[in-house]
Predict the structure.
Amino acid sequence: MASYFGIDKIFKALRIIRDYGGIRASLYQLYRVDDLKDGSLVGEDALGNKYYENKQLTLGRNRWVVYHPSVGTDYDASMVTAEWYGWLHHKTDQPPTEVPPTAYAWQSGHQENVTGTADAYTPYSTTRPKVEAWTPPRTV
């Protein structure tokens, strides 16, 4: 009877707001990612990102990441570490908290993609430019 009148939706919304830490935190989450999802916390990586899962959702949309609040709205998919990337994209069913990934000697630590930022790599060129800037003659 409660589902007929939609009361169960109200209780679900109240539970989601409680899980996010109240109305203010829920509004901040809506501002950051435009979505409030209901799921269980699976784990957290070294960068502070939290990973959630809801098995009642459609496959492919049932796992998600909530980025650390320090990045604000400037988050990027390259901020997900490699071991959690595999779990998010269903390459494995066990999260890295249950089965730690094997690390190889040639692997380095995680680095986010800085392309398009001030920290992006710019190669040094030793060749003369093909087009030289024109400097107007000085008139005295």
The mean pLDDT is 87. DSSP finds four helices and three strands in the chain.
